[in-house]
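Case study 2.
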Amino acid sequence: MKILCNPKPHANVRCTVEAPTATTPADYIRAALVTGASGFIGRHLIRALLQQGRQVLALCRNRDSLRDLQHPLLRIARADLAESHSYLPYLNCETTVFHLAAVRSLPGTCPQEMHRVNDTATVELGRHAAKAKVVKFVYVSSAYIFGPSDGDCRSEKDGYCRAPTLYNAYIQCRVQALTQLKKLAEDRLNLVTVCPTIVFGPDHPSHPNRVTHYLRWLLRSRVEFVVEGGEQRRNLVYVGDVVRGILLAEKFKAAGEDFILAGTDVSPRVLNRMAMTLAGCSLRFSVSLPGSLALALAKLADTVRGYDRTAGYAAAVKVLTQEWRFSFKKSNSVLGYTPTSFSEAILKTLRFIQATGTSHGEISDSTVECND
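Prediction:
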């Protein structure tokens, strides 16, 4: 399978994701309301819900962003999470709410905006959902809330992270929101929380995925750039697995439980090696920036640009220099969740990149083992 030699921006390519098989038709008759519908995971979730034959109401701030997802069972409505009147008419006792809307953690993002949407508005949505007695409130958070791993993999039993990880505004607001939602679950909110690790896979031009975007750059440039040796392991999970985990969690009966949706613990160096091998490419050269130098440069950049220290480049570098390893044992034993093999997930992503014309090389069908 040849990869195009002249990379162009990917556009107008439909992303597909494998929908889980319905065990009982009754499991999937209820309507679904999806916030953050135009986001990376949201698009894949909507496709899976539609493949189950469910009525789906997709809420997003810009209806045109979902124009390519036309379907007779799909209704798209404009709503802003911070404006409760925009979504209140859609909450009812026959609907499952899948809450994915959030401000992403990108250098330069205003911490106040993160807290306004990811914390305050999220809890407000939970309160209104409880009053409306929705069937289920599936909250898609982040495995980052359990903190970096120090030796062993982190799991749900370790609890939410506190200092020193709270230098990061994104983690702060995620922890605060879930703490408040748990209190609502003790009352009448039928809450289940899924916590994906670092998600990757086929993306869309309107909402590019960070890992997939990096793989495009790696295959074009063939230059490896890592921080502090690039041996820090992080857990990466394929977007199709996350969608399956979300739908499995919806069927879980008890309220207030958390489930980590993890994949494989892998270092940047191993990720780079696997991607280049499967693409039939070789690196031109590799650059490793010492962690102390990277942090100093990041702090300088934050100062020059006026970024808040909890949401700037320095916070991002601190995340890069830590290990983020997670266990999916609870999700596997309780929900029956099992992730795709890492080599297969990377191969699917590389084939998508090839199909959109944004890389060089030749995709290999051989299996590459991940030994990290």
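Confidence is low (pLDDT under 50) at residues 1-27, 366-372.
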